[in-house]
Amino acid sequence: MQKCITTEVAGRTCHLIYNNQAMFEIAEAFPDQEDPLDAISGKGREHYEATVRVFLILAQQAELVRGYYGYPQTQLPEQETISRIADVGDWLKMKNAIYAAVVLGTEHHVEPSEDIDVTLMEFQNEKNAESP
User: Fold this and answer.
1) What is the pTM for the complete model shown?
2) Model confidence at 99, in pLDDT bands (50, 70, 90)?
3) What separation in angstroms does the CA of 85 have from each of 42, 95, 111, 129?
4) Residue 118: partners with Cβ closer than 8 Å, 6 or more residues away
């Protein structure tokens, strides 16, 4: 199963997964942003609302994945509920959980190999840097 982040917001435990579907949904939700996660980086109302929206996208994906693997479903709070109940600490927890889920969802694990020719790699990198 994909790894997920677990956090508590508005008195409920929520799981977050950043997968391909979440990536596309976030990009579609914020088409005017070069990097869709920039939408949550400020301190204004629009950034708070974007944070809640991104949080719920990741939580919905987590519930779908968890359901697929047979884990018990958790009820997600509604966007209005989070907006009314969550405090500043919850806002920060949501932002941190979002960033942690994105990092976890985009990790690439590469096993070291003895067959890697470091000199050849350095040469290829230098050659690629010099080409127009």
Assistant:
1) 0.78
2) very high
3) 20, 16, 45, 52
4) none
